[in-house]
Amino acid sequence: MKKNVIVSLADSNYYPLLDELIDSIKRFKVSEIVAICILDAGLTDDQKEKTAYHEAGHAIVGLELPKCDPVYKATIIPRGGALGMVVSLPEIDRLNWQKAECEEKMAMTMAGKAAEIMKYGEDNVSNGPAGDIQQASGLARAMVLRWGMSEKVGNIDYAEAHEGYSGNTAGLSVSANTKELIEVEVKRFIQEAYDRAHKILSKKKTEWERLAQGLLEYETLTGDEIKRVIKGEPPHGDDDLDGDAAKSDSAVKESVMAVPKTKSRIKGKSGGKMTPEAT
Q1: Residue 17: alpha-carbon gap to chain centroid
Q2: φ, ψ (nearest 5 deg) of residue 221
Q3: Catalytic annotation, pick one of 55, 116, 207, 225
Q4: For the chain, what percent of residues have pLDDT higher than 90?
Q5: How far apart are CA 42 and CA 108, in angstroms?
Q6: pTM recorded for the entire structure
Q7: Catalytic residue status for 55
């Protein structure tokens, strides 16, 4: 009979527990293991704050630009290699992209780095935007090399040349002048997207601050909750409050949005110990 071992590693000092995991594997002699790891990666308050402002930047710019997909959720709970994320989902199946849509999507993508620089300065920007830069670069190169969205490069399919960026040297070779022009156009698209995001965050600074503090307080907010928070309201409406809280005006007035603060997440009673469970 196959057994599943469900492992919770909620303690920041989870690495020593790997030895216990190995012992559990040997003890149960499991043929198949499903490990569900809930990791609080031991983030410092500074790291959580920077993640909150980064993700809030993405969300604010995404909400401001009409051609971006609707913002569905924002979270600063680490998942995989990401310290946080903003999820935006299309309302309909997307079969093609317009140039204006690409430019707005790229602005939302670069908003995380713009937010970090605005809040902490260029010398204190983290490597958090690495994935954003990669995504923006891929989109900009597709616009220039494949989709004919650059007037200077023109309506020429450089798809084979584009393979060179993936390490395929057998692709179509281009002249040095053309390659330089391509890089200039790619950089222009990305820089314009960054400048657009920076301008929006400067304009919406109050909403951005509110959302960052809201993420620090609640860690995860839905699209509707984000819209309430940026207005200075509690994330939950009156209908979401329980009996007595719904009847109490003070429960609404004493919103954390009025005086933002950071609450530590409550650790589980297990204190991070593994609890093997046979099924």
Answers
A1: 29
A2: -135, 140
A3: 55
A4: 51
A5: 28
A6: 0.70
A7: yes
